[in-house]
Task: structure prediction
Amino acid sequence: MTPKKMKHSTLTSIKFLRLKRRLGLPSWQVAGILEMLWAFACTNAQDGAVGRFQDDDIAAWMEWSGESRELIEALVDCEWV
Result:
């Protein structure tokens, strides 16, 4: 699957819709959250092991204004990490 197709199909995936509902956010914000998560991983965890970082550090890097635990639990429960 090409990166463009993969990115486009993300917006209609069950995982995306589940995260959107869980966080109570519109699609554009959830897409931004995922972009920031991917950027975090590319910058800080190229091996994909984002779990070695504290929730507060990940949330701060992603500029999440809510409770860091809420964000991380939603990403885990919706199978993004």
